[in-house]
Structure formats: structure tokens, C-alpha cells
Fold this protein.
Amino acid sequence: MQQADRSAPDLPGLVEIVRATWRDTRALRKLDRRCFSRVARYGWFTFLGLSLWPGVVALKAVADRRIVGFVAGDPRRRKGYVLIVTLSVDPDWRHQGLGEQLLRECEACFDLPRFQLMVRQSNTAAIRLYQKLSYTIVADLPGFYGDGEDGYLMEKTATN
């Protein structure tokens, strides 16, 4: 695994991407509430698990001692892929390349050949970002989300 404790120099201001820990659970839940609708939010226990579970890479983007972004990747070694569990960027920090930087940093931490994620079909901004980073839609997920919205399964094959 590569070390993910370095600054993201291409972002405005000083943003540092580092490992998230269990101590970040409260702040991550607060970020999640700013980013997602009630039905799409994770509970505090999920963030605790993502920061503690062996093998999971949980990275936070920090600016002025505040968490402004988060990504988590869960390796599924037997199946040969990494599941990107969540990617969130504070609304005040969107459209500055932070989501792309977080996702690239997370991907760089793994040696598996594929990455998968799920996204709401209505989330066109996220879909564009994922397509920019070489993810393609591989399956429709009818009624996947708790409110009945359809999703897409997207996948990327690593090139090395």
C-alpha cells in the first residue's frame, strides 16, 4: 500500500489528505449529513467501522482543521476488486478537484485490478466524475436506494 499522508498541492488553499481514524467518526457523520439526503446517509457506526476495519482504506481531506472530504475503499480480495463505499465532498468544496484527488489517492492504496462503486442515476455530477476517471456503467440497479431510486454499478479496471 502506498502512503496517503501528503498534501494535495493542486487544490486551492492547504488541503491535506490523510487516514481517517475512529476519532473522526463524529466529524465524518457531520460531513455526510451535509452531502447526502436523509435516506442516503450513513450512521456513526458505519464511519466507525470504516475507520477501524482491517484492510479498509479511509481517507479524509482536511482544510483548516476541518474535514471537507472523505473516501473509503473496501478490498474484496477473493473477488479481485475494491468497493468504493463512499465518496463525499463538502458542498463548499465541490468543483475544485477534491473528489477526484480523494478517489485517486484511495485507488493508489490498492494493488487489486478493479474498482467498483454504486451511484444514484440522478447524480449526474458524480457520474461525470467517475467517467472522467475511467469508470464505466456495467449494470443498472433498479430500486437500489432506500427511497426507491435506481442506481448504477460502475467499474474501473486499473492500468499499470
